[in-house]
Structure formats: C-alpha cells, structure tokens
Specification:
Layout lengths: L2 H13 L8 H7 L3 H18 L10 H11 L25
C-alpha cells in the first residue's frame, strides 16, 4: 500500500477516534507532514459537515432573487457617485486647474 494512502488512513482513524493505540505513533508522525496537516483538516471538515444540522428548505426562486440583488450591488472598490460629487469636480490627483 502506498505510504501516503496508509498515512491518510491512520489520520482518518485518529480523527474518528478509532485508531488502535499501536498505530498512534505512526499517525502522529504522519501529521507532521504538509499532506498530513491537509488530511487532518479535510477529515475534520468532512466530519463537521456530516454532523451539521439540516438547513431549512429555501423558497422557490431564492437563488434567482439573490443573484439579481447581487448583480445590482456595486463592484468592490467602486462606489456610486453622490450628489455632492458633480461631473465638474476635479480629481485630487489632477491638482489645480
């Protein structure tokens, strides 16, 4: 069996609380690698999702209404001009006329 796959199995069993004590040292060593850190985070994320409470059903058309409202929002970093900012106002970077 490939070492990375075996290490992920050790980490998965450890995160589930099902790792035999004899394999604990191997699992702890596997956690020290970047792949081990990623596997630990992924298994815990999966567990969190599986244990999550069901969410209520959304009303029909919710996604479409949300998309339309988001489309109407200004882009980040751009704000609509206010009445006090007339078309003749000079940008600060331009300096005096």
């Amino acid at each position: 069996m490939h070492a990375n796959k075996k290490n992920r199995e050790f980490i998965s069993a450890l995160s589930d609380g099902e790792l035999p004590d004899i394999d604990r040292e191997l699992a702890m060593a596997a956690l020290e690698s970047p792949d081990g850190h990623a596997a630990w985070a992924n298994y815990h994320h999966i567990g969190d999702i599986l244990r999550a409470e069901p969410t209520p059903e959304l009303s029909p058309g919710f996604a479409e209404r949300l998309a339309a409202r988001l489309a109407d929002e200004p882009m980040p970093g751009k704000r609509p001009a206010t009445a006090s900012e007339g078309a003749d106002s000079t940008p600060l970077a331009a300096g005096p006329r």
